[in-house]
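We modelled the chain as a single entity of 447 amino acids. Its sequence is:
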Amino acid sequence: MTLTGIEIYKYLPKTNCAECAIPTCLAFAMNVAAGKLALEKCPYLSKEIRVTLTDASAPPVRPVNFGTGDFLVKLGNDGVLYRHEKRFENPTALGLLLSSNDSPNQIDAQIESFKQNRYERMGSSLHADYFYVEDSEKTDPSAFVELAQKASLHGALMLCTSLPSTLEKALEKVAIHKPLIGSAGTENLDLFAALAIKYQLPLALIVTSTAQATLLSQKAQNLGVKDLVFSVGAASMREALHLCIEIRTKAIVDKNKFLGFPTILYPCAFTADLKEETLLATVLMAKYASGVVLSNFKAETLYPLLTARQNIYTDPQRPLTMPSGIYPIGNPTPDSPVILSCNFSLTYYIVSAEIGNSAVPAYFIIKDTEGLSVLTAWAAGKFSADSIAAFVKKSGISEKVNHRRLIVPGFISVESGSLEEALGDWQVIVGPTNAADLPAFLKSTYL
């Protein structure tokens, strides 16, 4: 159960020493409760109190990580059912199925698709996250070990076999990469738990009902395994979705601590059609899969899935933004026009597309307006003449062009005179209010 600031304050020294860079202990407690500061920032909390507060303030769905470095995958850490309450935390991890029964050519093709399908969108890198390495048990255990080693070079690992002996052979080679291991059931939980503890790894439990999940979770925790993931098994998509929602709801609403762990689901098990599989993955992503496993990656299906994930896991109270800076469009030269706009991502993509459609190379400069659109930012005082002038002077655009002409959005035409005065040697040109009119405007002015 998440603690309030007042509840956290009760445990603090109340000295108001400000060594945490916050002036009072009460303000520090409020920041911790809001997730803006870590308890470790207070130098006077005892280890026992830290443990007590950390456990008490932990989110209902425990955070569980696997992988290392650039391949680190974060699951869980959620405390709400709906985005408007508070944003969802760690985006659903996308996994690619690799089987030890696949041919070397199939495996190489799968790994290559994992590596190549990476995209940049709204300032973020979009890509898949991990390999689900499956032991078919029809092959020699060495095939599973070799596959795990090969996949570990390119992404995080989830290693799945029902044979603890085979799993341990693989861990002797790849435990350094901190894989998620599984999948454990009632019959082999003791052996899998022993491996999880020995190598300090998270453990996936096979569950087909909340009753079974509760029982296995309780047993695993009693054995000493704290980082757990539910590997949801189901005969149909309907059953999988229902169980995923039920686990999340009972963890958050009923505060069932034995169900407060991330879930991984398998849309690849319900259809042989990749398009349908991707659609199912999108549904599971929204309600509330921490990870999904797909049978294949293709640009035409993976990119829509990645963009859907990005949209679901953004903060609904904070609009998507582009980093402030200079964006060259169409190989501009020192004589190319300079066009100004805000950093609301939708505005950026619409306006940049219209600049591209004009066939006029240009420098598109983006001012930070905290994600507000042009007119909204102007009304809020974040797109005023003084702030624009300061941005233009610091942006470095003066070194890239040999002219001093700045095209501003038509919606802030009222600022043009003040902006010219603030900039000094720049001429301010008022552009159209509608982005669709920008190509004609640029062509008539520069072609």
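As a brief sanity check on the tokenised model: The chain has three domains: 5-57, 64-312, 325-446. The longest helix spans residues 237-252.
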